[in-house]
Specification:
Length: about 70
């Protein structure tokens, strides 16, 4: 899937019309790292190392990597 399509899908599913673009159920707190796939805020602090994904992209990645047979 092209990155532009992925970004719009993640945004449509993971956020509402909040002013900062964060999902309505996302916890308030420190600055959150951006998802490496779509750029949406993750549930992890910005200081956490590694390639971080938002909840929607985490779920999609798990679906892609799950054993299908």
């Amino acid at each position: 899937m092209p990155d532009s399509a992925r970004a719009s899908t993640c945004h449509d599913l993971a956020t509402d019309d909040t002013t900062d673009g964060r999902a309505a159920d996302a916890p308030a707190g420190p600055p959150y790292a951006d998802c490496v796939h779509c750029g949406e805020p993750t549930e992890y602090p910005a200081a956490r190392p590694g390639a971080l994904l938002c909840p929607v992209c985490e779920w999609q990645e798990a679906q892609r990597s799950a054993c299908s047979g």
